[in-house]
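ok here's DinB family protein:
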Amino acid sequence: MYHIALIEADWLYVEVLGTDWDQEISALFPLEHRTDGNLTHFEGESIEEHFYRLNKVREVFLSHFRSMDLTDWRKPRVIEHYDVTPEWVVYHLIEHESHHRGQIFQMLRELRNDKC
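and the structure:
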């Protein structure tokens, strides 16, 4: 969940808004995204703390997206290596979370089978 929230915040601030991260959001991510090329393993937080982080990022994300009109929604943001629209960002993040939800449910199935 740390990774999902971090990616959503990054797409919002870097690609859509083109600004530095808000301090309140940045403070929710004390660890680097990757360690030795792998996603950083994050332990020691309750599921409620993970949900708080994800919900806070989504609250800020939605507040920015709700203020967009259709023209801004489809206006390309020109990034160094690619162009991206807010419309595509939302599509991409839905796809991203769906992928990780599948992984989470697969891991839960495997854990449940190990305990039987």
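+1. The mean pLDDT is 91.
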